[in-house]
Specification:
Blueprint: E1 14-16, H1 25-34, E2 39-46, H2 47-51, H3 55-60, E3 71-75, H4 79-91, E4 97-102, H5 107-110, H6 122-136, E5 143-148, E6 150-152, E7 155-156, H7 158-167, E8 172-176, H8 191-199, E9 205-208, H9 214-224, E10 228-231, H10 241-249, H11 260-277, H12 282-297, H13 304-310, H14 316-325
Parallel strand pairs: 1-2, 1-10, 2-3, 3-4, 4-5, 5-8, 8-9, 9-10
Antiparallel strand pairs: 6-7
Helix pairs in contact: 1-11, 4-6, 6-7, 7-8, 9-10, 11-12, 11-14
């Protein structure tokens, strides 16, 4: 099945997953430089904060002039606020694609009844999805949703969520094949993606979880019959992974891992884009870029001392001096691409509103679900 988002057909069935504090316009531009024509989704924003025009949320909704499609991820637990947020985004022409997050396991999200907590209540989930789709439909903006297998192994909801998506007019769905309790521990359970695809043949199903190399995407699609993949942690410090994915899925040879000199060039370009994104504020740009330096250097034997210096970099001039010290001929160690980046912790205790699981059929929105409207979540 071909993956289409409204009038946009990606060059390959590959999507960049939103990651908090990472997938801003600068990082998306880096990924697009290696593989234009894919879907790169902006950071997740809260519906209530968007409706109330929270300044932090406003700044997060930034796209470059050449970005197409302009994809944004939204989350919320109140159908009314989600509908209002979607109507604003679409009515003001701010986006071309809306993705709804029903999979975030972060405590600050689930304890308000958002993210991965929502699918536990199918009626509430349906109301939220319906509100988003109905708000976006007049503007021709497709809505997709991403979710996990469920909160716990004894409360799996992925198949029910997929059926609700079909019934409410969602364009495509994506499954991160872990539970919220599992968080990012262990291996993604790809069999659940195959189960979902078999249960939801009407719309594209994308698989997410443990795509570290291009071969992983090929294997996931072969094993599960899913229609494409969503990539998150695997591209941290490796924006060229999207080029590799496009080549692999097209049956072309995949380029070898770049030597450290090429990585240094990418790091410099990324930092420059981030500085522009931060309106020339070198302090903010370098503070944000520090976490990226660790991801870029993962798998390269450069030593702890220089890694520490990169982690404290404070200016472009200092960054350029550090990059010049790297040996450009150093190669990635065997298995370096599979060293996990980003979150690795779990299992976790899932934070939920008091009594949230007592009545799964109700549509009650938690009283404190709007609390983060003033903070931006």
């Amino acid at each position: 099945m071909q993956v289409r988002l409204g009038s946009f057909t990606p060059a390959a069935p590959v999507v960049l997953a939103p990651m908090a504090g990472v997938t801003n316009a600068a990082f998306r531009a880096m990924c697009r430089s290696f593989a234009p024509g894919l879907v790169y989704v902006n950071e997740m924003v809260m519906a209530a904060a968007l409706v109330h025009k929270n300044p932090k949320t406003q700044r997060m909704m930034a796209f470059t002039p050449d970005e197409q499609p302009r994809s944004l991820q939204l989350y919320g637990s109140d159908p009314v606020l989600v509908g209002q947020a979607a109507r604003r985004l679409c009515g003001e022409g701010l986006i071309d694609h809306l993705d709804m997050n029903f999979g975030c396991p972060a405590a600050k999200v689930t304890r308000k009844g958002g993210g991965a907590a929502v699918p536990a209540k199918p009626n509430l989930l349906r109301a939220i999805v319906r509100a988003a789709v109905q708000a976006a439909e007049p503007y021709g903006v497709p809505v997709t949703i991403k979710f996990r297998m469920g909160l716990f192994d004894h409360l799996l909801t992925h198949v029910t969520t997929g059926r609700i998506a079909v019934e409410e007019g969602v364009a495509a769905i994506a499954l991160h094949a872990r539970t919220a309790e599992q968080h990012y521990a262990g291996d993604a359970r790809w069999a659940a993606i195959g189960e979902l695809k078999a249960a939801v043949p009407e719309i594209p199903v994308l698989g997410n979880g443990d795509i570290w190399e291009a071969a992983d995407a090929v294997r996931m699609m072969a094993e599960t019959d899913c229609d494409g993949v969503v990539v998150g942690r695997g591209c941290l410090g490796r924006p060229w992974l999207f080029r590799d994915l496009v080549d692999a899925l097209a049956g072309r040879p995949v380029a070898p891992a770049p030597p450290l000199g090429e990585v240094a060039d990418v790091m410099h370009r990324h930092a420059g884009r981030l500085l522009a994104h931060m309106s020339g504020d070198e302090y903010l740009a370098m503070r944000d870029f520090r976490k990226h330096t660790g991801w870029y250097l993962t798998g390269y034997p450069v030593g702890g001392e220089i890694r520490g210096r990169f982690a404290r970099v404070a200016s472009m001039a200092e960054l350029e001096d550090l990059l010049a010290e790297l040996d450009p001929t150093v190669a990635l160690v065997d298995g370096g691409a599979r060293i996990r980046r980003g979150h690795t912790n779990g299992p976790i205790r899932v934070a939920l509103p008091d009594g949230y699981l007592d009545h799964l059929d109700d549509m009650t929105v938690p009283d404190d679900a709007r609390e983060m409207a003033v903070s931006g979540g």
